[in-house]
Amino acid sequence: MLFLRSRMDKKENKKETAEKLKDKITNILLDVITDIPESLYEKSDEQAAKVRKLITQASLKASAVSATLSVPAGLTGVLTSIPDIVAVWRIQAQLVADIAATYGKIGLLSREAMVWCLFRHSAASLMRDVVVRTGSRLVVQKLSLTALQKIVQKIGLKISTKFIGRAALRAIPAIGALGNGAYTYYDTTEVGKTADSYFKALSDQPTVTEAEIVEPSPTNEEK
Predict the structure, then answer these.
(1) Which stretches of the chain drop beneath a pLDDT of 70?
(2) Furthest-apart CA pair in the chain: how many Å?
(3) CA torsion sign, 56 to 60 to 65 to 70?
(4) How far apart are CA 193 and CA 200, in angstroms?
(5) CB of 75 closer than 8 Å to CB of 11
(6) Among residues of the chain, what percentage have pLDDT more than 70?
(7) H or E stretch including 28?
(8) What is the DSSP string of 161-212?
(9) pLDDT tens digit string along 12-25?
(10) Least buried of 5, 18, 186, 214, by fewest C-beta within 10 Å?
């Protein structure tokens, strides 16, 4: 009886921790994509080489931050790593801004474009309401705040679930540090590749037309 009660208590604690983590991550993400960072870079004549350098530098920096995470054992300890997650996302957001500036398109870096660049590779199924394809190019839609919040909430749930799942690994200092550092390097590199592809395509377009403000169509989960 005591064993069953203990398991139920652990399950409830895990659920409560997951809910708190989801809420924290959602709020952080809204801040990250809303507070578009400025860039010190200007349009470059050697864009490809410059972008590769920016991606490498940002990936190494983010990886170093992630590798130094020191999360206490247990699910509650996961919440203490939030500041480090924020640092990684800020580095990635700055990378997106710097790439946009390198292509001379910093003025087109909207909150929707930021979401697309940050999470296209890790939450592709949630990005279909952010970007539409017109012919051979992708167009980032201008979303209402409510629509954007719904997407960010789903991203927050996805990220928090994965994060909780890796909690045991994070509690092992050596393995956790190496694993987190390697994953963050890959993750930041993918963010850079997405931003590079997106803003390069925009730089090749003489004009850019934004879509109307729209609400995302309901997904199968919402129907």
Answers:
(1) 1-18, 69-81, 134-138, 163-177, 205-223
(2) 71
(3) positive
(4) 10
(5) no
(6) 68
(7) helix 2-34
(8) HHHHHTHHHHTSHHHHHHHHHHHHHHHHHHHHHHHHHHHHHHHT-S---PPP
(9) 655 666 677 778 88
(10) 5
